[in-house]
Design goal:
Helices cover 41% and strands 12% of the residues. It is an alpha/beta fold and 336 residues long. Among the domains are: 30-116, 3-Layer(aba) Sandwich (Rossmann fold); 138-284, 3-Layer(aba) Sandwich (Rossmann fold), CATH 3.40.50.720. The strands form three sheets. Strands 1-11-8-7-5-6 form a six-stranded parallel sheet. A three-stranded parallel sheet has the order 3-2-4, with helices on both faces. It has a two-stranded antiparallel sheet with strand order 9-10. Strand 5 (160-164), helix 7 (171-180) and strand 6 (184-188) form a beta-alpha-beta unit. 46% of the residues are buried.
Length: 336
């Protein structure tokens, strides 16, 4: 059996079409959602990430601003910049690109962002809203995972779901979203006993530990839906040989480039799972997509504009309506 591929790029394109319609409607009423990105220093990876986010804004017709403080910036200077953006009514979303320099108190800076403009969904207020099932802005990666599940008709209600990883950015909000969608959720971590057996009971697996190929194929129940959040760059030839033993084309590409991107799930899962997100091309495109969706949603919420039923910014993965939306998925069956 070969798993059905859960194509994040395809879903991104679908959501972008929906968002363009919402943005045009808002523009007609005199509202242009806008995102302000703050990129500190010259880290190449961070520059690439922010560039892709600004490009997505331009593609959708969102307003965007780039702020480039020097790497020597202090915590107080960062707090002042955040305060200025909080006060700017044209700015609906504030993106603080991480990591920040060591001398900057990252926690203080993130918590200084107005929760109404926290399009990353990191603020404790927004996490608290998620815990209590109230409308708010949800962390983009788990929101994107939910979008993948729902748009591929993966049954969530009543399913056994296992989340590997308990970070505030992915693992915890992912578990809450699945729980609100009426799944029975187990969150695993480094102290979990008999991890393979726990994973083997899952109908839905979300892997977010940051370890290349960590989840072995034999851990996965045949037919389970697997969401692989990990993006790990492999450069060791022996590790590549282990991971790509049954994928000679991928191994050959590794030998040509001396590197390859691998998720947290072993590639052999392709022959066991019922549905699987690829790496790259799975969860990655959806993270930026949900950032755009959150920006549009923030523009609506800040101005009291009703969210149209069925619109991208009111989807199950970004609001407290997740359980109602996902319950519709019980008409379908998790791939087995």
């Amino acid at each position: 059996m070969t798993a059905r591929i859960l194509d994040g790029t395809k879903i991104r394109d679908e959501v972008f079409v929906e968002l363009k319609g919402e943005i045009r409607a808002l523009d007609a009423s005199g509202i242009r959602p806008g995102l302000a990105a703050v990129l500190v220093g010259d880290d190449p990876a961070s520059q690439l990430y922010v560039k892709s986010k600004i490009a997505a804004c331009e593609q959708l017709g969102l307003a965007s601003w780039m702020h480039r403080p020097p790497a020597t910036i202090t915590t107080q200077e960062m707090l002042q910049l955040v305060d200025d953006l909080n006060r700017d009514d044209a700015v609906d979303g504030i993106l603080i690109q991480l990591p920040l320099p060591k001398q900057v108190d990252t926690k203080r800076v993130l918590e200084a962002v107005d929760p109404a403009k926290d399009v990353d969904g990191f603020h404790p207020v927004n996490l608290g809203r998620l815990v209590s099932g109230r409308p708010g802005l949800v962390a983009c990666t788990p929101a994107g995972c939910m979008e993948i599940l729902c748009r591929n008709n993966i049954a969530i209600e009543g399913a056994n779901a296992v989340v590997l990883g308990r970070s505030d950015i992915v693992g915890k909000p992912m578990g809450l979203l699945l729980m609100h969608a009426n799944a029975t959720v187990t969150i695993c971590h480094s102290k979990t006993r008999d991890l393979p057996e726990t994973v083997r009971r899952a109908d839905i697996i979300v892997a977010a530990m940051g370890k290349a190929g960590y989840v072995a194929a034999e851990w996965i129940r045949p037919g389970a839906a697997v969401i692989d959040v990990g993006t790990n760059r492999v450069t060791d030839a022996q590790e590549a040989a282990r991971l790509f033993k049954n994928f000679p084309e991928r191994l050959e590409k590794f030998r040509t480039k001396n590197s390859a991107l691998v998720g947290d799930v072993h590639p052999d899962a392709l022959n066991v799972a019922g549905a699987l997100t690829p790496v790259p091309g799975g969860v990655g495109p959806m993270t930026i997509t949900m950032l755009m969706s959150n920006t549009v949603k923030a523009a609506r919420l800040r101005r009291g504009v009703p969210v149209a039923s069925g619109s991208s910014s009111s989807s199950s993965s970004t609001s407290s309506n997740s359980s109602a939306s996902s319950s519709k998925q019980t008409q379908t069956t998790t791939a087995r």
